[in-house]
Design goal:
The complex is a heterodimer of chains A (106) and B (407).
Chain A: H1 8-13, H2 40-50, H3 54-57, E1 62-63, H4 64-76, H5 84-98, E2 99-100
Parallel strand pairs in A: 1-2
Helix pairs in contact in A: 4-5
Chain B: H1 6-22, E1 42-44, E2 50-56, E3 59-62, E4 80-81, E5 98-102, E6 108-110, H2 112-117, E7 121-129, H3 136-141, E8 155-164, H4 165-172, E9 180-185, E10 199-202, H5 203-206, E11 212-217, E12 220-221, E13 231-233, E14 246-252, H6 259-262, E15 266-268, E16 285-287, E17 294-299, E18 304-306, E19 312-319, E20 325-331, E21 339-340, E22 342-343, E23 353-359, E24 365-375, E25 400-406
Parallel strand pairs in B: 5-14, 18-25
Antiparallel strand pairs in B: 1-2, 2-3, 3-4, 5-6, 7-8, 8-11, 9-10, 9-14, 11-12, 11-13, 15-16, 17-19, 19-23, 20-21, 20-24, 22-23, 24-25
Classes of the chains: A mainly alpha (106), B mainly beta (407).
């Protein structure tokens, strides 16, 4: 597994006793694998505003009702600014690459 | 697009751009284990050893199982779970203040030095556990649940030091009309309209008990990713109310509805806090609060190969909501017979109680080691196929099992 350690190793080299650092910590960027096709660019454009693709990959394979409910939650509860037609594109993308067709279940 | 905070939007673009310039290092192929589950990369974040990185933004870092062979979890291996993508990466203690406001006589703006010098310091050793910890085990014995599928590694135990919340509130002078206390930290959403990670508790709870505003974790400053410089400590409770980078305490006369109190981190409001029939959200909700009795195995880890005749020290930790662990039982034959383990030093009623069992396997083959804790009021861990289910996958405390091979 190849990893961008960036500044983390530098910080480990400084004081281990005090968390207070003299300059901003730098967070590593993780290049999570994102399945291509079926308008992955729409899913990326909106999902990545608030969270990494790790949130999707680490849920396991989910049903169409599950992903539909999750996209609704992002729009209705978290106020993600996703137009209606793009919501459906994202749901279809998630079901195809990270889920399965089903009328019920999780 | 004007709804999105410009800084975040630009930030995301810059990150994507930078990664392109640096060259994409991770393979396009999704790495999965034998059961088809995604295997998160293991990455070192600031002040942390390499940990399972479920997400980098917001950061969700899981500890590995071997951490449960220690009664105190080191800061650099302690799990991390944020809810919002915009987290300060630098806090200047010269200007940082904890504000106390609302239905009080005297609004306060306290520096970390004020908290250290103007209040009696209190130390408490307590488990911190995510409400969704061990969630993936619901799927092993039944229906999968919502949310990212944590293993056991969204919990740890540390020595927290700080000022009592009630001492802080008493200095501010709570008005007679006050009924709730709202707590807010510095993490912010990317979209202005997204609900903040705002938590509430009843005023009586805030004014009693062991709740502290901590400025120290295991004798050090709290790591940034665990909530530097201040974190609310609610011993015995799940971590959803342990607000990180605590910056505001608002005393309120009325309850304020909020997504994170009323919808997220809730379970059915019935005795089993579980779904008996139908759908989860057909039930009246209640927020998860106190933890349930639980024990996990730290050593051996799954699929460990052990030489026949060698003596090994099976060890792990157990805890509950603060009643205290009475006994941890162990089975080496998939649950057919049970023996008592030896409980180690008592670090307080809210702490991990480490347990040990000396085992000398006499025969070759596959073994399943199971542990089951019982507390002083008789609460016992359910077997995995007996546990009550909820859609959020909260409060999992089924009997832990680890398979090993004796050769």
């Amino acid at each position: 597994m190849k990893i961008k350690l960036l500044i983390a190793t530098l910080l480990l080299g400084t004081s281990a006793v005090f968390a207070q650092v003299s300059k901003p910590i730098e967070m590593p960027y993780v290049d999570y694998p994102i399945a291509k096709g079926d308008h992955d660019e729409v899913a990326q454009q909106y999902c990545l505003i608030c969270h990494s693709f790790g949130y999707i990959l680490n849920q396991g394979q989910k049903s169409r009702p599950y992903w539909t409910g999750t996209v609704s939650k992002m729009v209705n509860e978290f106020k993600a600014p996703i137009p209606k037609e793009d919501q459906q594109t994202i749901i279809n993308y998630l079901v195809k690459h990270y889920g399965y067709e089903s009328t019920s279940g999780h | 697009m004007d709804k999105i905070n410009r800084r975040n939007f630009l930030g995301a673009g810059l990150i994507l751009g930078a990664s392109t310039l640096l060259g994409k290092e991770t393979s396009k192929k999704i790495i999965t284990d034998a059961t088809g589950e995604f295997v998160p990369p293991v990455i070192a974040f600031p002040e942390k050893k390499p940990m399972k990185t479920i997400s980098d933004r917001p950061p969700l870092l899981e500890s590995s199982r071997d951490i449960f062979s220690q009664a105190i979890t080191p800061n650099d291996q302690f799990f991390v779970r944020w809810h919002m993508p915009d987290i300060p990466t630098y806090i200047d203690l010269e200007t940082f203040r904890l504000e106390i406001k609302g239905s009080i006589e005297k609004p306060l703006a306290l520096s970390v030095d004020d908290l250290k010098s103007k209040f009696e310091p209190v130390e408490i050793t307590s488990v911190l556990q995510c409400g969704g910890n061990s969630r993936k085990f619901y799927a092993r014995s039944g229906q999968a649940t919502h949310g990212v599928q944590w293993g056991h590694g969204a919990m740890g135990c540390a020595v927290w030091k700080g000022a009592r919340l009630k001492d802080i509130l008493n200095m501010a002078g709570v008005k007679g009309s006050a009924k709730f206390v709202g707590l807010n930290g510095l993490e912010k959403p990317a979209v202005d309209e997204t609900p903040h990670f705002f938590r509430e508790m009843e005023i009586d709870e805030a004014l009693s008990g062991d709740i502290i505003v901590a400025y120290s974790m295991n004798g050090e400053d709290i790591p940034y990713l665990n909530g530097f410089p201040l974190k609310l400590i609610i011993p015995g409770h799940f971590s959803d109310s342990w607000v990180k980078m605590l910056s505001e305490i608002t005393v309120m006369d009325e309850y304020r509805k909020s997504f994170f109190m009323d919808v997220a981190y809730t379970v059915p409001d019935n005795d089993c806090e579980c779904v008996v029939s139908g759908g989860d959200f057909e039930y009246k909700r209640k927020p998860i609060t106190i933890m349930k009795v639980k024990s996990v195995i730290g050593y051996p880890t799954p699929n460990t190969v052990i030489k026949k005749g060698s003596r090994i020290n099976v060890t792990g930790v157990a805890f509950d909501q603060g009643k205290g662990i009475k006994e941890v039982m162990i089975s080496l034959d998939s649950g057919k017979s049970w023996s008592t383990t030896t409980l180690q030093k008592d670090n307080g009623k809210y702490a991990y109680r480490q347990w040990n069992y000396s085992w000398e396997p006499k025969a070759k083959g596959e073994y399943v080691i199971m542990v089951r804790a019982i507390n002083r009021i008789g609460n016992i861990q359910p077997m995995p196929d007996e546990i009550g289910w909820n859609a959020g996958g909260y409060q999992y405390n089924g009997v832990d099992a680890v398979n090993v091979k004796i050769v």
